[in-house]
Amino acid sequence: MKVAIVTGASSGIGKLLAAGLEKHASFDELWVIARSEEKLKALQAEVKVPVRPVPLDLTDAESTGRVKELLAQEKPFVSVLINASGYGVFERFDRIPEKDVSGMTDLNCRALAMMMYAVLPYCGKGSIIVNIASVAAFQPVPFGAEYAATKAYVLALSRAANRELRPRGIRVLAVCPYWTKTAFFDRANGNSVITHFDCMYDPAFIAKKTFRAMKKKKDYVVPGFIAKATHALTKLLPHSFVMTVFIAQQKLGSRNFADKDS
Ligand SMILES: NC(=O)c1ccc[n+]([C@@H]2O[C@H](COP(=O)([O-])OP(=O)(O)OC[C@H]3O[C@@H](n4cnc5c(N)ncnc54)[C@H](OP(=O)(O)O)[C@@H]3O)[C@@H](O)[C@H]2O)c1
Fold first, then answer.
1. Residue 261 lies in a domain
2. How many domains does the chain have?
3. What is the CATH number of the domain that holds 154?
4. Residues near ligand 1 (Cβ within 6 A)
5. Average pLDDT of adjacent 10-residue blocks, the chain of 262 residues
């Protein structure tokens, strides 16, 4: 049996990738992972192949053990893994709630790496792993310091693993979206100080570009013109200058100096 596995399939980019994947890859069953079981179950209405909801909180270190158990039980060929679960909190680092300091690294980094590690014994020629990173991966982002660092990890891990796994015929693709209109902001905005968005992409556009990139030989893709232009600027300009511009754009200069209660 061939399976595709999508984390973060209950919402946003991951949901659209899960719903559209059967048109772009071959598999008999779709395993979908997130915390909201009802939303995962609802995906069956949008997909022809059987959907297996695997409700898990991936910040829990034990959770990927459940995926390993399922794989050991079913012994499938994993043709696609998409790691789309992720979140960000945008605030000065010392003001981020402690649970999110560990939560962001647990979900965006540890769980993503453990999902890759769990599926690789079941992958082979033609398998592809798609990791959702961010344009934030390309340079440090003040007031998104940890989130950007987790995405730099995702990008570096994906690109190097892509090289390592080439002899096995397995590809790893990192997708680096710019701001995208999803529930990401419902969660981020609770504690977010980022308020200026010069552009907001549609998640359907990100999904379309991801499917297209899966057919090419790239190891990362930056979907959209503004996203590509931002990426180019981070290559051309000193990162310290880009950080200063970002802080000014977000009107966060005073926040660098304000004390805890201001
Ligand atoms: N939106 C943007 O501007 C943007 C830009 C660049 C990159 N990204 C990245 O794109 C990816 C998808 O985000 P999105 O924008 O589509 O946001 P979203 O709509 O909030 O989707 C996030 C997904 O992650 C799942 N998730 C969150 N916490 C989880 C946990 N503890 N365990 C398991 N799953 C969990 C959520 O499901 P449950 O809540 O049901 O668990 C949901 O399915 C993320 O990696 C994000 O960092 C987003």
1. no
2. 1
3. 3.40.50.720
4. 8, 10-14, 34-36, 39, 56-59, 84-88, 107, 132, 134, 177, 179-180, 182-184, 187
5. 98 98 98 98 98 98 97 98 97 94 98 98 98 97 97 98 98 98 78 83 98 96 97 95 92 69 43
